[in-house]
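Input/output pair, single chain:
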Amino acid sequence: MRVAGLLLAAGAGRRFGTPKALVSLHGKLFVDSAAGLLRAAGCDPVVVVLGAQAADVRERAELSGVTVVDNPDWSSGMGSSLRTGLRAVGLADAVLVLPVDTPGVTVEALHRLTALAEPKALARATYDGEIGHPVLIGSDHFAGVMASAAGDQGARDYLKAHTVRLVECADVADGVDVDRPQDLTRHTGGA
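Output:
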């Protein structure tokens, strides 16, 4: 099975104060860490969708071994980035979708989802029963996801309307989104 990785890194990070693609943790930009995670999990290709301050992200990030695409409509929300990324993936049996602001996700969590990859697959990580990321979308669902993805909802409405396999990952990862600078303390050992 060919599983692509799709990293959604186009947002402006309004609550954070800067695009989260440019946030640094342990000396690495979020965008580079997340893209490297998808590559380490065996995703091929890895597509990174940029938007807000895309030129700055390209200048500061390494982005090696990935396909970078710009979402000109990034300000309309995650839905347009999801559509842009799915179009750029090309031929794949499934795609693993990861937002750039989940630094606690691990290769082990990604492997749990990629093990389920097939064209009919729909699966998402959960953390102590709470739904989170990544999300695995089989190629049979690409057109439906693109048709329903709007605003900041991404694939949420499509996933609600279909049977999705939930994959518990709390024992190997932390799926919490980093929305504000103080959220980083969870990942830096700070108080």
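The longest helix spans residues 78-89. The chain has a mean pLDDT of 94.
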